[in-house]
Amino acid sequence: MNVKVLVTGTDGISNKPGYSVIKSLSEVENGHLRLVAVDYNPFSGGFYCKYVSAHYVCPPPTIGNNGTGMTSFTWSRENPRYVSCLMDIVRHEKPDVIIPTLSMEIPTFSRHKSQFRALGASIEVPDEDKVAIANDKMLVFSFMNDLLICQPDTHAIRSAKELQLRLRKVKLPAVVKSRRHGACVVRTVNEAKFAYRLFSELWGEAPLLQEYVEGTTYCVASVSSRGSVTAAVAMRKLARDPQGAATAAATVNAPRLIEMNSQISRALDWSGGMETEWILGRDKEFRLLEINSRFPCWVYLTARSGLNLPWILVRQTLGYHDKQGSYRSGVAFVRNVLDIPLGVEKLITRRAPTIDADNLVPRFAFAPWTGK
């Protein structure tokens, strides 16, 4: 099977999942895969690895209120230059399959999936209204309450006054988190106020105050088609970075978690890759922490444990619905940073072929795209 796969979000240094997807696909035997990397960072590690045959710098998927996408953030305002850039890349490269790996770009691919398919590129993503739920932690909380999925108690905080009132009832430590991305544990009232201001100013919307649950964190990565889970792998986090991403983890046999993940997939009528994150409290109850609308950055662990989820997604996207086996528990990883030595001239010359220079590459190789 000769297949070309375009993967986005390939900068592994910042915990984007695309590089792990590329590594997973590179280990497919007799797959005859050609991999294309796309990222808005001109220094994306995926551009310089040995696994890709082509790479492209694109504009950021979203833009902020100031129009630059650099000093303010939004997940709701699509960058039209990103869409036109991706369309140009697809016309030029003619990939068989597209795997988007960034949460902020999944809504864009869902919105435009028929246009990508019209260009001959197959893509498996959920419907836009389901992505909107998964990408909003408050909507997730409401939706899962209706499903009777256990979660930490969560409240939207719309003002500093409301925060003070809630803190009289919520035990510290607690968690202040954005509805979109980012969270921090707060142990004092002043820390809670600071986190509230930080997330309010960063995202321009009310952050959340959540009950803090002490316990062990687990994650499930899965591939689904119209709500039916094709394959899933569960892991336990052994170590985390300051942002909460796993830096060491091991696969576990967790049928209860796999079933709850399947329940969520069915309720959302999910298609494509997904991650659910859970915490096992001292009361031995699993509580859902969040849903990610794409593969996790640890997805390479699934390939090493016997269920290569990115490859399963590729085959599913192409119409092959294979019966999947099981994965091995006890397979672990420790995240490391690999430097890629190369001459500086390669940094300058290893850029996208010029299809439309205004859309595909930054004006200077060393300057991030600024929207100008």
Segments where pLDDT lies below 50 for 5+ residues?
66-73, 348-372
Strand content: 15-25%
**Total DSSP E strands:** 15
Category by helix and strand content: alpha/beta
Question: According to CATH, what is the topology of the largest domain?
Answer: Rossmann fold
Oligomeric organization of the protein chains: single chain
Helical proportion? 25-40%
Strand order of the largest sheet: 14-13-10-11-12-15
Tell me, rounded to a whole number, the average pLDDT: 88
Domain module tally: 3
The dominant shape is globular
| CA distance, first residue to last residue | 42 Å
Tally of separate helices: 12
The main sheet comes to: 6 strands, antiparallel
How do the helices and strands follow one another from N- to C-terminus?
Answer: EHEEHEHEHHEHEEHEEEEHEEHHEHH
The CATH first-level class of the largest domain comes to: Alpha Beta
- Cα gyration radius (Å): 20 Å
Give a short summary of the structure.
The protein has three domains: 3-123 and 341-360, Rossmann fold (3-Layer(aba) Sandwich), CATH 3.40.50; 153-211, 2-Layer Sandwich (Dna Ligase, domain 1), CATH 3.30.1490.20; 214-334, ATP-grasp fold, B domain (D-amino Acid Aminotransferase, Chain A, domain 1, 2-Layer Sandwich). It is 31% helix and 23% strand. It has helices spanning 18-26, 80-93, 106-118, 128-134, 137-147, 160-167, 189-203, 255-268, 300-304, 309-317, 344-349, 357-360, and strands at 3-8, 33-39, 54-57, 97-99, 122-123, 154-156, 174-177, 183-186, 208-211, 215-225, 228-240, 246-251, 272-281, 286-292, 332-334.
